[in-house]
Amino acid sequence: MKGLSFNLSGDRVFAGIVLILVVGGIALFASAALGLLAQANGDIGKIALTQVVLGLLPGFIALFALRFISPKLLLRTILPFYIFTVVLTLAVFIPHIGVTINGARRWINLGFTTFQPSEMLKLSVILMFAAYLAQAKQSIKEFKYGLLPFGIIVGIPCIILLLQPNTSTVLVIGAACAILYFLAGARWRDFGLIVLGALVALTILVFMRPYLMNRVMTFIHPAANASTTGYQIQQSLIAIGSGGLLGRGYGQSVQKFNYLPEPVGDSIFAVFGEEFGFLGTVLLVILFVAFAMRGLMIAAEASSQFGSFAVTGLTLLITFSAFLNIGAMLGITPLTGLPLPFISHGGTALMAALASVGIILNVAAHRAKRRPATA
């Protein structure tokens, strides 16, 4: 029975970490959603329904489907999936299909709610680049097999995302793929060119786009505009600080009522900090660290190059998003708008995260058998 249990899960430890994050996330989401009662446009029923219908249910279906799919079939579906998500992401620019919210055109109108294709695009880019690296690993030191494919596979989706604009998603995709490229054996010079190019592009974007400059200036001087651009970070720090050591208690957050912007969105960590205090936030950080460590261990034991690259990329994608969100709420990184994986509101993001878990567990189930140590 022990062997059967392990085989069904793929990796019991990793599956257990994810289960804790998802179940705990549902409970925290329910608490944070109460803050919407104080907002005129806060439709709790609709938000909760979309989180379940577009996130939790399809997410678990995708998780189980991808956990048990044949590795060969998974590989064959990657290119069509990549093309589909690129086309779907381009669809946001089509009038009456794409939806503009807060100056960004990132969503597709489904009538009863919206769908954010960039969340699925993140997944497809990682898988596509992992599949390519596994196939061309011995040749990536050459420009036409290294930097050029990187620019096509990763660069084209990033350009589309920058046009929306969606800079935060570009950051996590670019960082994860750059690390994969380096781990695959890229030359230091090529890796350095990618990093330098990214820094130059980001600097240009900051000066070209006022909202990015505002985020940078708020990060440098968080108290300078406490009632405008610095409002979110100020309210977040108040919430986390008022939680003290043990927190106010589950459901007892005050800041979620008409103080914290997006209490169910990218500010949800602040709600958690207020309700569960310093010890609770440390535990949550430990869970994400454990998620990263176990994911990278699975990658190291993968039976194929593709499995190793795919798991590494997906683990980094989720971990980067988590720590950029947490860092922003603590004021140690600029605000990005990234959701807290498995926890924040965003049905598409939750579905993509659970689908990623399914692939990681699939690789874990097929990993090479570990040999016992010999004297």
Give me the side-by-side strand order of the main sheet. Answer: 1-2-3
Overall geometry: globular
Instruction: List how many beta strands DSSP finds.
Output: 3
| SS element count, helices | 14
Terminal residue distance? 31 Å
Residue fraction in strands: under 5%
| Average pLDDT level | 87
Gyration radius, in Å = 21 Å
Could you give a quick summary of the protein structure above?
The chain has 375 residues and is mainly alpha-helical.
Give a description of the structure.
This protein has helices at residues 2-9, 12-33, 44-68, 71-90, 118-136, 147-153, 155-163, 167-183, 188-208, 210-220, 231-242, 268-300, 305-330, 347-365, and strands at 98-101, 104-109, 114-115. The chain is mainly alpha-helical. The chain has one domain. A three-stranded antiparallel sheet has the order 1-2-3, with no helix packed on it. Strand 1 and strand 2 form a beta hairpin. It starts with a helix and ends in a 10-residue tail after the last helix.
What's the SSE blueprint?
Layout: H1 2-9, H2 12-33, H3 44-68, H4 71-90, E1 98-101, E2 104-109, E3 114-115, H5 118-136, H6 147-153, H7 155-163, H8 167-183, H9 188-208, H10 210-220, H11 231-242, H12 268-300, H13 305-330, H14 347-365
Antiparallel strand pairs: 1-2, 2-3
List keywords for this structure.
375 residues; mainly alpha; 14 helices
